[in-house]
Amino acid sequence: MGKRSKAKPEKIVAKSGKKNLWLIAGGTFIMICIVWVALRVTHWGSSDGAESASAPVTLIATLDPVSYTGKARVAYQVAKEIPEILAQLPCFCGCKDSLGHRSNLYCFADEHGSICDLCQNIALEAQEMHRKGLSVEKIRDNIRTAYEHQRM
């Protein structure tokens, strides 16, 4: 009987050790995932919606300006003419969070640009500054200065 009682505790300790190892491995994996997600969210959240100057500019198709009238039509035309500029500009209307827009150019890839005065103003002002020969960095700085306080 004495031998039998000694064998069981050893098996329990061995099984317990394996369970602990799996718990530690699982916990470590979960922590790594949490840190990875937190770093990605922090990186995404630190941006104001404009694509990074160091990252390649993503140009996307925008909607046809002839579908709109007035100021909206002009803004959609600007998006067709200078997408490489608008792709590097932030938008402060909140469409980044609500619609997933990555830059002002995205506002004109859907109907949002037709109803958002702020997005239209950013595009039109960018066009004017571009015509004056300002660099995209200067245009971006001017847009931030002018609209950052209007962040929704």
Characteristics:
152 residues, mainly alpha, 2 domains, 64% helix, elongated
Summarize the structure.
The protein has 152 residues and is mainly alpha-helical. Helices cover 64% and strands 0% of the residues.
Question: What is the element layout, followed by pairings?
Answer:
Elements (H helix, E strand, L loop, with lengths): L1 H45 L23 H12 L1 H4 L8 H5 L12 H4 L1 H15 L4 H12 L5
Helix pairs in contact: 2-6, 6-7
Describe this structure in words.
The longest helix has 45 residues, at 2-46. The chain has two domains: 1-46; 65-150, no CATH class. It has helices at residues 2-46, 70-81, 83-86, 95-99, 112-115, 117-131, 136-147. It is 64% helix and 0% strand. The chain is built from seven helices and no strands. Residues 40-47 have low confidence and may be disordered. It is mainly α.
